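Replying to the earlier thread about multi-chain prediction with a worked example.

Input:
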Amino acid sequence: MPAISAGYCGAAASFTLSGQYRRGRYLTIPHENVPLTLFLKRCTGPVRKPCAHPRVGTVSVGEYCSDGEIEIMPLTTDCAGNYSVTVVGSYLAAALAVGPWVANPAFSCGSPPAADNPANAAWLPFVRDPASIARYGCPRDIGASGTAISSGLGDLINDETGGISDASVINGLCGYIAPTGVCSECQNTTGAFFVTRPTAITVVRPGDGTVQYQAQSLSGSYTLDFYDNFTGAGVVAYYVKDGSFYQVGGAMVHLTDSCGRTETIGTASYPGVSQIGNVDWPNIVSVTVSNWVGECSPPLYTSFAGPEGPLFVSGPLTAATRPRILRDVYPAVPTLTDLCINAFPSFGIRLQTCTGETPERLQADTHDERLAVSWLTATGGTLRTAVHLSPLRHIGNSAEGWEAAEVVESAGADDIGMAYLPARALYLSYMLGGAAKRRLNPMAGAAGGWGLATAAVPAVSRHSASGRAEGQAFRFRALG
Amino acid sequence: MPGALNFSQCRDNRGSWTTEVAINALAAGPWCGGVFTGNRYVCLFTLAQTVAGVGAAGQLFCTHSTDGGNIWSTPVFTGYTGYCSGIARTAQGILVAAVWGAGGTTHTGFLQSRNGGEGWNNEFEFGLAMPDLPLPPTVTALQDTVFCVWVSGNVPQFLASSDGGVTWW
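Result:
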C-alpha cells in the first residue's frame, strides 16, 4: 500500500488507500459490506487560524486548523472485506474510519460558551451515525496497514498525547473525535479524525442476561436471532416472545450471509454458546433451522415444534446473573412439549420420547434396588408390568434396561393398584369384569412370576398411593 | 367428584389388607400421595370441592397420622394446587411429591419437605424437568435417589434426582 504522498501543501498527487476490514475474535474473518468513511483534508492555502476550541480531554486549549477543506468520502468493503480508494489532488492528510460519518450539524468553530463542557459535541466537526456505532463498534479490526497511511508530516491519527501508532489503532486503542494538534502552520496538523470504540461487533444482549430454564411452547412464526454471549466467545440463538428473550438450544442453524457464505452451527452447548466462524453474521440474510444431528440428545431441557422439527429451548432471560430460583410449582408456561428429554445437561443421553399413549393408570414401586411399574392402557384396558433391575446404575436412556413388559391382563382391566409387600412379593390388584382381582409375584415382579388371579380381599383394587412402613405395606385410596 | 380417601395396611406377604380407615370424604381421585416418614404417615390430597372455611377445590392439602393410621389430623393447605400423584422418601428423610395438573395444566412439578411433611415448598434451580403428560407420572425412591416414572407407548421411563427433587437427570 503506498503511503500518502501529499506533503505540506505539496503539489497535487495521488495516493491509494486500501486494506481489509476483518472481524472475529482473532480478526480472521473478512467483513463485507461495511461502510467506511475516508476523511480528506485538502490543502488549499493553509493558514494558521485560531479556533479557540480547547481539545478534548487533558489537552490544553488548542486550535482547530480550519484552513482548507475536509471532505468525507463514503466507502464500502467488498465481500472479502477489502476496500480501496485512490485520491487525486493536493491533500494534507487523510484518515479512514469505520461506519458512515456525517458533518456535525452542531459544530461551531466559534468560541464556546465559557461554562461549556470541553467534551461538548459541538466541538466535534464530524459525528458518526449512531446506528453504525452499535453495529460495527470499534474499528480495531480495520485491518489497514497503518504505516502506509502516514503522511510523513506527523501522525495521521492523533490522540491527546500525540500520535497513535498504527499498531495501536489496529489493536483497538481508542482515539477521539476532536480537532487535532496545534495548527502551527498546519505542519503538525494532519487533520485526521478518528474514533475507536473498544466494543465487539454488534451487541444485542437480551434482557439483563440471566438464564432461567423453562419450557416454552410456540405456535406461529418466530424470528431466530443471535446475540454475543457474555464472554464474547460465541453467539447465542434466541427469539423474542411476549417481550421476553428465550435462548434456543438443541437445533442446527444454517446461516447464509450476504456474500453467499454458509455455515451450520449447533445451538445446544450449555449455556447455548455457538461459534460462528465463517459467515459474516451481522450480514446474515438467511437462517433455517433443523433438528439436532446425531444420536445424543442436546443437553437442554425441553422442546417445541420448530419450523423443521422439534427445537429445544431454555429461557427466558429475565433475572440477574444466575438461574433464578423458582418459587412456583408451575411457572406460567403454556402447554409443554410432545418430546421429552433428560433434564440437566447430560451429554450422551438419548432422547426419550413421550409421544406414545399415556396409560390410564400408573403404579410404580421400588424394592431391593429394583423398580417395578404397572400400567393400564387408556384403550382396551390392557394391564402390563415391567421391572427395571438396576435403576440406580442406569446410564443413558431410561427407556432401556427394563425387563420385557409382561401382559398380565390383555383387556378389560381397570383401576389398578400395586405395591411391594413387606416380604418382597409384588402385589397387584385390579378390576376385571366388575370383580376385584389380585395377583402376587413372589419373584419381586419379575416377568413370568405372576400367580393366578384371585379375588381381592377386601374386594377393592385401586391404589392411589402405596408404600411400606415397618413390617407392613400401606395404601391410600382416593375414590373420588 | 368428591369421594372418600381411605387408608389401610397389609402386614403379610399375601395381600391381606386391613379394614380401611376414612381420612376425608371430599378428596378428589384417583390420585393422592402417601408416605411413611418413620414416625408418621403423611398424605397429600386434593380437595374435590370448595369447602367454606377450609379451602377451594383443587387445592392441595396435607394430613398425617401419628398413631399408625387410625386418626388423621385436620388437613392443612399446603399453599399449592394440583394433584399429588405420589410421594417418595429418600434415605435422608426428604420427601418429594409429584404434583400434576395445577391450574388445569398438564405440567408436573415437585414439592419438597424436609420436615416430615409439616411444610412443603419447591425451589427449582432449573424449572420444570418433566415433559408434559396428559396424565400424571408417579414418584418412588431408592436410597437417596428419587425416580419420577411415566409410561409412553407402553415404554416405561423415568427421570432420577439425587438432590431431593431439585434437579433431574
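Chain A has a mean pLDDT of 59.

Feel free to reuse this layout for your own posts.
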